[in-house]
Amino acid sequence: MVARKLSLKQKYGHFTRGMDWEPSYQAKEDIFPFASYEGIKIHDWDAWEDPFKLTMDAYWKFQAEKERKLYAVIDSMAQNNGQLGITDARYLNAVKLFIQGVTPLEYQAHRHFAHLARHLPGAGLRVAAQMQSIDELRHCQTQIHTISHYNKFFDGIHDFAHMHDRLWYLSVPKSFFDDATSAGPFEFLTAISFSFEYVLTNLLFVPFMSGAAYNGDMATVTFGFSAQSDESRHMTLGLEAIRFILEQDEANVPIVQRWIDKWFWRGYRLLSLVGMMMDYMLPKKVMSWAEAWESYYEEAGGALFADLARYGIREPKYADVAKAEKGHLTHQAWTIFYNYTHAAAIHTWDVDDQHLAWLREKYPETFEQIYQPRYLKWREQAAEGKRFYNNGLPQLCQVCQIPMVFTEVGDPDTISFRVSEHEGDKYHTCSDGCRDIFDHEPVKYAQAWLPVHQIFQGNCGGATLPEVLDWYHINQGADNMDYAGSPEEAQWDKWMEGRRPPLAVAAE
Amino acid sequence: MSRPVSITLQSSQDGIAIADAIMADNPEATRNAFPAMIKIDAPGRLTIKGDTVSELLGREWDPQEIHMSVVSLSGSVDEDDGSFTLFWR
Amino acid sequence: MNIDIQAEAIIPRRQTFSHIARRFGVDKPASRYEEATFDVQPTANFHYRPTYAPEFELYDPRRTKIAMADWYVFRDPRQFYYATYNINRAAMQQSFDDAVNFVEKRDLIGSVAREWRDRVAGYLLPLRHVEWGANMNCQLIADWGYGTQITSAAAFCGADRLGLGQVISRIGLVLGDGSDEELVAAKQRWMEAAEWQPLRRLVEDMLVVRDWFEVYVAQLVVLDGLLYPLVTDAFDRAGAAHNGAPIAMLTGFLTDWYADNSRWVDAVVKAAAAESEGNRAVLNGWLDTWGARAADALAPIAGQVLGDMGPAAIAEARAQLSDRLQKLGLSFAKELAA
After folding, report:
1. A187, A195 in Cβ contact below 8 A?
2. Which residues pair with B40 in a beta bridge?
3. Structural domain containing residue B53
4. Considering only alpha carbons, which residue of chain A is nearest residue C54?
5. Which residues of A touch B67 (CB under 8 A)?
6. Chain A interface mutation, best of B7, B12, B68, B80, highest count of A Cβ atoms under 10 Å
7. Complex ipTM, two decimals?
8. Which CATH number do you get for residue B29?
9. Residue A11 domain-assigned (yes or no)
């Protein structure tokens, strides 16, 4: 049905903001109590222009169609044991990292976009936020449904929500999103809609989805493509929202800049897990982290911030550090996981010669000199039956909560280590970026539930490692430890008998 | 040369028709194929016309159906009667 | 002769997720609804307090007076997860679109008595603003509620309210012969006409309630529970005398939606009431307070539509809601206090 006299814009106006009204019986500040405490000034909410004019009739129709197609693939994959088509079982560790680390963040996004859908005074923005809220629920639920089939065969997936809230490496994504949802609505928009869903989104999407495509995981690829059309709405909201806020008042610019600096850095640190996944967990590699960073941040981001310069916004602080670290980041992250794989719900393994060659090629300035020697040493130890596991617990950065393994720019022999004082206590951070975040809001970051501190305080099931692993719900000897000798490896080798030879695990 | 806008579409039946329509209606656009995707770049501005796509598909196609085929886009979005446009402010 | 296809022994090592197996007491396959809702929401070890409400955790059962031992007894009888929700609503929407096409093609609105057509525009179109308020209330429940079961269903309900507001708006365009005149007039009535102010005041008052379960009761149980039967039943029936059937065709979406949503609301309220004497006392208190206010707010509108029959229609709606609530273990004063 098409109204003869109204344009799409006019109709959409009636179908959204036209239903809103200025309250008379209650004060606007009481209906929207969180709209001003961050110091952001919005003078005219009506100036927001809706980029997409999606009404619920179209939403339901399109999303129903996408879901029908997606579930047909999920059903087919389950029925036909699609997991037999992946390159190698080690690929599943990328999927485990995803369901443990990312799927719970989709859920948090769902809930918090509902928060925005209720508490932002602007009607147009509320509509965009509520669509994103159920989009994110979609992503959460379709990921659970897709990965449900893998759960039947592979380890580390079975208690993902419980683990997300407890395991040491999963506090990295959990604290990232808790940081955003505990902030006000405008910071959340900057942190998630802009920094995460616009600036950095390709650095999450491309590694996981392309990784799935290259490694035979058809179900995840299909999910990825299906979700991407939702992401176009989300990234558009991020870009337009940031513009809108910056245009409303000059006073907003320095506040937004600080948030852009903070969330670039927190997002970048979070992505070290993704980079590690790209460089180490994909049997068939898509591209290196360094290449992804160059393409999706340095080139694309450069153009974006050149455009935002007209508002007085500059490129995020410490972008130069991220650039300088790109030859090191993933190897340091893998090092952490290799050290602590006995306490993690993913496997790691010794790097074979073919993989070493790829890493040397992709990281010519750093890999052979700095990281290859340790991998060779570890391989030697494993071959002697003394596979190395680190029996201590690492110090975590107070802000990003990653173990303190990153090194100073230009000095790979020195751990990057910063100290701040707050109310008589010392707090340790991994970088200038994290230290700045701490120093700006020490009361907030002092609250963090640091997994290692919590273990030492006796809050994680007991004083011994097996007790802690039990508390984590890690199935010991299955979820954790090296891939070599794992039940998954045995299962995979059995499946592949008569199908194809397993990939080489280590050097001859 | 003004800043490029771009749209990446799935290489589905609809996606291919949309890509063909864009190329027909936007003379300065360039098209590149990727695995399962088509990426189209254009300097400054790109418009998708519902009529053109409808003609190519042999059925009524509303520009809002772009939601079924889009993978990614770069630029500000404007939906209007019968068209979908990407541009930079 | 048998055809015996040899299946490879690709044997699952487990049937479902551990958190679901714990609930079942055994590892057996779970439904998609169960996988999509059980225990997905975080419950522990939050890193920071909300800067906008530091007295609460990020997910906090204390945001309501309602107390539950297990927040996962609010099973949605429709078992909506995202896919089934959207597929269901797309089908409902298709019915509405077909009805609009049917009515417009044959210019059936033209056959409705002008006076009745105006009266329908009078009572129906401002309700899109009530739906807008309902949408905001559902977003509050989705935001501050506890447990994936009730909050995900509330998020779907929020989307429904936006959809309902848009359905009513489209009816307004039909009644306006494609122009927005009727919608503009309806908004003016919402803002200024005397008979609408009690309802607008009620809607605005709901928007400052901070207990999300109270919002649930006020909006989804009480206001919907009185308004929808009034509009889709009593008001609609009055239209029969005026050849109002074409309009009834268009409002079918509202009738169908209310029946569907009530299944969920009934299940939630029943579970909350069954939990404890304490919950029942709280719920009954809310029902009385908001029940009285809603009846008062709807009375002038019923009077406009039904004239002298207005009060009887309100009383009938209250009695029906009371019967419904009794079956759910709750009470609701049938008669308005003198």
Report:
1. no
2. B7, B31
3. 4-87
4. A182
5. 54, 58, 62, 229, 232-233
6. B68
7. 0.96
8. 3.90.56.10
9. no
